[in-house]
Design brief:
- InterPro entries: HTH-type_Bedaq_tolerance, HTH_MarR-typ, WH-like_DNA-bd_sf, WH_DNA-bd_sf.
- One of its GO terms (molecular function) is DNA-binding transcription factor activity.
- This is Transcriptional regulator, MarR family protein.
- It comes from Streptomyces bingchenggensis (strain BCW-1).
- The chain has one domain: Arc Repressor Mutant, subunit A (Orthogonal Bundle).
- α3 crosses α4.
- β1 and β2 form a beta hairpin.
- The model has no long low-confidence stretch (mean pLDDT 91).
- The chain has six helices and two strands; from the N terminus they run ααααββαα.
- The two termini are 24 Å apart.
- It is mostly helical and 156 residues long.
Length: 156
């Protein structure tokens, strides 16, 4: 009989973390005005990458977003049809296309990011007491470490 409660506690903690992140992401989407764009979260993530990284190849976008080339192509098709991105031949390699954001896309992404930041700032100021700010910093550091963990050597 296994008397070590850690795996069950870790699983319960993992579920709570997942649920909290999911709820926070949904709240951020709502508060930022993301729903009003008519774009999916994936399409907006790709658009934000184009704004931040552009001009950029589709292969680079797939790598940045950790998705397949097909998924990037689908998102880019929607973004092109909406006039938010355009492409031109890569001057270094004419076989490749460089994707760039339209000015309206940059403005949209900036507005969404500002909306998210404003909500988070107000929420932190409202909910996190001054003596909890250090705990908040520690929690952020832990989340960053979780996001960066490499489990490729776990032997599974």
């Amino acid at each position: 009989m296994d008397t070590n409660p850690r795996p069950r506690q870790s699983a319960a903690t993992a579920q709570r973390l997942h649920d909290a992140i999911k709820r926070l992401r949904a709240r951020l989407r709502a508060e930022s005005g993301q729903h009003a764009t008519g774009l999916t979260a994936t399409q907006l993530a790709v658009l934000a990458s184009v704004v931040r990284e552009g001009p950029v190849t589709a292969a680079r976008l797939a790598s940045l977003e950790h998705v397949s080339a097909q998924a990037i192509a689908q998102s880019l098709a929607v973004l092109r049809a909406a006039g938010l991105v355009h492409s031109e031949p890569d001057p270094q390699d004419g076989r490749k296309k460089l994707i760039s954001a339209d000015r309206s896309a940059t403005e949209m992404v900036d507005k969404l990011l500002t909306g998210r930041a404003t909500f988070l700032t107000l929420a932190i100021d409202h909910v996190v007491a001054p003596d909890e700010r250090e705990d908040m910093e520690k929690a952020i550091e832990l989340l960053e470490r979780l996001a960066d963990v490499d489990l490729s050597d776990r032997g599974i």
